[in-house]
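To: structure subgroup
Subject: Chain for Friday's discussion

All,

I'm putting the inputs and outputs inline so they're searchable in the archive.
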Amino acid sequence: MPWMTPPELPWAAEAVLTGPVVTVLPACRVAATPAVDYDEALLGMSVPPGRQALRESRTAQVAEVPAAFGWALAGEIGAATADRWQGRFQAGRATTGDCKRLSAALAAGAHLDPVLAGFASDTPVLVTWVDGLEAVPISAMVLPGEVVHTTAGPVVSDLWTEPYQLTLRVGMALVSPDGTVVVRLSDEIGALLTDEHGPDRAGRAVARDLAGEVAKIWPCEELVATR
């Protein structure tokens, strides 16, 4: 019987060698895309019609970030463990039912390991999810030209490019073929969405941040033994 982390802890780690190939599933999107925020920094003011389309376009880009995070995480984990782990990743597919069960467990605050075991396949599986997604226009926070120091770095409020501050609550799990949750980790991570830093780069930035933590508990041949 594997050791199970209590539900209140956002991580788990099992000393199990996972093999040379890990199948990567698309991220389970649990969080809804935020509604368009039409507020200005000045209290009671709204974005004029000429800028509403830009806010709407930027908000639509927010919806693309979770998928970008899910696909980028494997590469970032590989880069972070390249000196210790010689495995590789391959793309796979998750069923709608699996993601729905994971979504229900997250919403209920239930222990995730029994649900994550249902993702088990012929190879170890990397499961990712996004269960929190907030997006705030910088121009709704401060006046034009002012600088906001976010968790992802400083950004200038610009009415004509509308940078957004993102906050994602993300999670990942590595599930062995027998259903053991080898690694499980979740965190809340900030990112920026701008003209130069689009959805793909924002998703990768979140993935890189999480991968830095995952690498500390990722099972590697030099560190663990097979069962």
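Points worth raising on Friday:
The beta strands are 11-13, 21-24, 28-29, 88-91, 125-137, 147-150, 153-156, 164-175, 181-193.
The chain has five helices and nine strands.

D.
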